[in-house]
Amino acid sequence: MGTFYNSRLLEWMEVGRSELTRAAGIPYVEWEKRGVMAPIVEANLKFRGRAGYDDLLNIETSCEREGRARIKFESVITQGETGQPVAEGFTIHALTNPEGKPLRIPQWVNELLGDMTE
């Protein structure tokens, strides 16, 4: 079809989330070491344009609280050279302990969210 396979969008959004948490000072792998898991409970994807093999893309990701035990990551993906839109969307993540029991957003995550939204 001359464009990326649609499931790649979720992978690109994961890259955006990972880089955002890393840039804010606590990579997601550290969240899990601290006992905070963040499984996706909802995803919304909008396909806006095309991207082909080996295209350079920009991924802009932001994060906000979504209630007491959830966070929302929003992503906008554009062509690196032209800025043309490729896709946008969001994922909502429930915060849980390793056994899957919901957790309120821990204080250190609240502080990190502040760093990611400023």
* Alpha plus pi helix count: 3
Order of helices and strands: HHEEEEH
Tell me roughly what share of residues is in helical segments.
Answer: 25-40%
Please indicate the count of domains. 1
Question: Shape from CA axes?
Answer: elongated
Mean pLDDT: 92
For the report, how would you describe the main beta sheet? 4 strands, antiparallel
Round the Cα radius of gyration to an integer and report it. 15 Å
Strand neighbour order, sheet with most strands:
1-4-3-2
The CATH class label is Alpha Beta
The CATH H-level superfamily is Hotdog Thioesterase
Family: Belongs to the 4-hydroxybenzoyl-CoA thioesterase family.
Keywords: Hydrolase
InterPro entries: 4-hydroxybenzoyl-CoA_TE, HotDog_dom_sf, YbgC/YbaW
Pfam families: 4HBT_2
Protein described:
This protein has 118 residues and is an alpha+beta fold. Helices cover 29% and strands 31% of the residues. It is built from 3 helices and 4 strands. The protein has a 4-stranded antiparallel beta sheet with strand order 1-4-3-2. The mean pLDDT is 92.
Q: Which terms summarize this structure?
A:
alpha+beta, Thiol Ester Dehydrase, Chain A, 4-stranded antiparallel β-sheet, 31% strand, elongated, Esterase, 4-hydroxybenzoyl-CoA_TE, hydrolase, fatty acyl-CoA hydrolase activity, YbgC/YbaW
How are the elements arranged and paired?
Blueprint: H1 8-24, H2 28-33, E1 40-47, E2 57-65, E3 70-79, E4 85-94, H3 107-117
